[in-house]
Amino acid sequence: MTPFAAEDLSMFGTDPWWLVAIKAVFCFAFLMVTVLFSIVWERKVVAWMQLRIGPNRHGPWGMLQSLADGIKLMLKEDVIVKRADKAVYILAPIVAAIPAFMAIAVIPFGPAGNEISIFGHRTAMQLTDLPIAMLYILAVASVGIYGIVLAGWSSGSTYPLLGGLRSCAQMISYEIAMGAAFASVFLYSGSMSTSAIVESQQDRWYILLLPVSFLVYIVTMVGETNRAPFDMPESEGDLVGGFNTEYSSIKFAMFMLAEYVNMVTVSAVSVTLFLGGWRAPWPVSTFWEGANHGWWPMLWFVVKVQLLLFFFIWLRGTLPRVRYDQLMKLGWKVLIPVSVVWLMLVATVRALRNANYAVSDIALYVGAGVLAVLLLSFVVDMFRARQPAEEAREKPAAFDPMAGGFPVPPLPGQTLPPVPRRRPRRERELIVSGGPDTPSDGPTDGKEASDG
């Protein structure tokens, strides 16, 4: 494999301080406005899916509902529980919210060249870029999880602690597969810079070249943001409210803000890595040369982000919450093996391309390797299936009421196994009917006899 090519990042770091401040405020405002719109949009879309009305009182068409919710939360009483570790308890919402805003700094809203003019200064439609921008995004996203974990631990309550531990396990399970999906993009683009990755998708988006990486990232980004059907850290059915049970007022609002900002951030990362970033979609870019110039790239970027946010809402209104064992099984037994095998396949293809092999030869080698692996797995499965069948013929299997993980009644002809340390039937009948073995039938003193 050839080493990563040196990116041309000379256009970053040359803006005057006031222009950098304007771009930073724009990134913050973009996230806040998108969050306010997403909250209303989610309630409207879910209400439409469930044949309800949804918000329709605050503002035109209820568009100010999220703003009213934010004001209501700020005016509520801020309660701090007595058993909480106050320093960590107050710091946890800040740790969860601030990293959510930081990742947007390296997301390109438009071309890296000096495409737009702000008060006479030509600048790029991106706050900054780094040679390792994607590693920066992964690091920032990992720090945000600490806010949830610390919130659950510092509350001094059982259910928030369980929610924090679930979030920690979920992060470990899904970030491995997410990193492998990112690595496939790095191999194809030859860079970890976000602007360079978008530039490398000029001819073909990576959703077409790396479809497995896109699907793996879509699943992991839902798990990383703790959204349904993977919202186990805040499962109200068994954890009351999860890690934020003991929070109220502005602290609770910061957790909700962090969740929706993370949704926007992971959607922007998905657009940057797999959907061409700020580039116009294929039918528009073919007959309109100016579609990728000026302020138009920002429009395409925002439309793609909104489509992914609709995907989040669609999942919430469609799928039920999974069990925790299903969540872990999907992460460790499905996503991680698939992403690692796919990464090895992508690395093999790139190595053959760098060695100047023809596309037909690469397809032949890869197809032969995949066929050999499938044949080997088929043979192994055949031998593994034959062994239990032979054991079943030799000895009939005993009925196990917990075979599937849940208690089930026996079928006709099956009997339940003996219960350990169970009382004999005659002794149980004596106890139930008040026989002489019960403590109440023991010898009585004279006082009790005279009372009778």
TrEMBL record:
Record's Gene Ontology CC terms?
A: plasma membrane
Annotated membrane-spanning segments are: 17-41, 88-110, 130-153, 174-198, 204-223, 260-278, 298-318, 330-350, 362-383
Q: Which reaction does it catalyse?
A: a quinone + NADH + 5 H(+)(in) = a quinol + NAD(+) + 4 H(+)(out)
Which compartments is it annotated to reside in? Cell membrane; Membrane
User: Predominant location of this chain?
Assistant: membrane
Q: Which InterPro entries match?
A: NADH_UbQ_OxRdtase_su1/FPO, NADH_UbQ_OxRdtase_su1_CS
Q: Which parts of this chain are annotated as the region Disordered?
A: 394-452
**Pfam families in alphabetical order:** NADHdh
Indicate how the chain sits in the lipid bilayer.
Multi-pass membrane protein
Q: Which EC class does it fall in?
A: translocase
Quote the subunit structure annotation: NDH-1 is composed of 14 different subunits. Subunits NuoA, H, J, K, L, M, N constitute the membrane sector of the complex.
PANTHER family linked: NADH DEHYDROGENASE SUBUNIT 1 (PTHR11432), NADH-UBIQUINONE OXIDOREDUCTASE CHAIN 1 (PTHR11432:SF3)
Name of the featured protein:
NADH-quinone oxidoreductase subunit H
Q: Which organism is it from?
A: Streptomyces himalayensis subsp. aureolus
